[in-house]
Amino acid sequence: MTFRNPDTIHSPLASYSHQAEVSANAKWLVMSGQLGMKKDGQVPENVIDQLEVTLDNIFLNLEAAGMNKKNLVKLIFYFVEKHDAAQRRSVIKDKLGEHHPCMTVIYISGLASDAYKVEIDAWACSE
Fold it and tell me: Do β-strands 27-30 and 118-126 pair in parallel, antiparallel, or remain unpaired?
């Protein structure tokens, strides 16, 4: 898998890549939207805390498939409330380290329950 930021367009606004090229022989893992719910059913009230739990749930899904965060190709973040973007970027950078998958952030009016403030769609592959 090759991540690129073409010099013909603007630089990424955060720790992500503009594109990912994946070979035809890749093993794909497509996850259902992940929420900030802990295994015991607890959902933190704070959106940033939910973001951290949601990313941890993605990492646990990756582990169950024999993958890790370096296999992430694309993340789509859905948020239902405004929050500190710098804090969001910091959490994502801390969780992903030097890996910069493709990312999209979208604000929406609601999720499956009022308790949920973030949901993430994640795609991963191994070659």
Answer: antiparallel
Q: Which CATH architecture has domain 15-126?
A: 2-Layer Sandwich (3.30)
Enter the pTM of the model.
0.91
CA distances from 116 to 12, 30, 97, 113, 126 (A): 28, 21, 25, 6, 30
Q: How far apart are CA 96 and CA 93, in angstroms?
A: 5
Instruction: Kindly report the number of other CB atoms within 10 A of residue 125's CB atom.
Output: 19
Q: What is the pLDDT of residues 40-96, one digit of tens each?
A: 999 999 999 999 999 999 999 999 999 999 999 999 999 998 899 999 999 999 999
Is 107 strand, coil or helix?
Answer: strand
